[in-house]
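$ ./design --mode recover --in tokens.txt
reading tokens...
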């Protein structure tokens, strides 16, 4: 993992969220070129800004660095929903997941 991972991951998450570099920069309270400079590899965000970026995408820093996790925001929402369900309902959902995986 290198600096390219960070800029590429931010770009991936930004595109999944459907926002432009300009909009993300504005949402984070920065000048219009802030995210462009990160995405182009000209700069990296400092730690406090990195944490703000994770908050912006509703993910944890660990989820940010999990390369195999392509939809961390959706998975986080699914986990939040699962936490509110009964054990019986969670088992139903697990059975559905298993069935869907067999169909692939």
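writing sequence...
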């Amino acid at each position: 993992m290198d600096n390219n991972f960070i800029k590429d991951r931010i770009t991936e998450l930004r595109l999944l969220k459907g926002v432009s570099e300009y909009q993300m920069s504005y949402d984070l309270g920065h000048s219009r070129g802030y995210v462009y400079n990160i995405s182009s590899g000209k700069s990296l965000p400092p730690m406090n800004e990195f944490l703000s970026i994770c908050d912006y995408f509703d993910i944890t820093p660990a989820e940010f660095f999990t390369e195999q996790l392509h939809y961390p925001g959706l998975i986080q929402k699914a986990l939040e929903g699962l936490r509110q369900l009964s054990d019986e309902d969670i088992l139903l959902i697990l059975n559905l997941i298993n069935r869907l995986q067999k169909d692939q």
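exit 0
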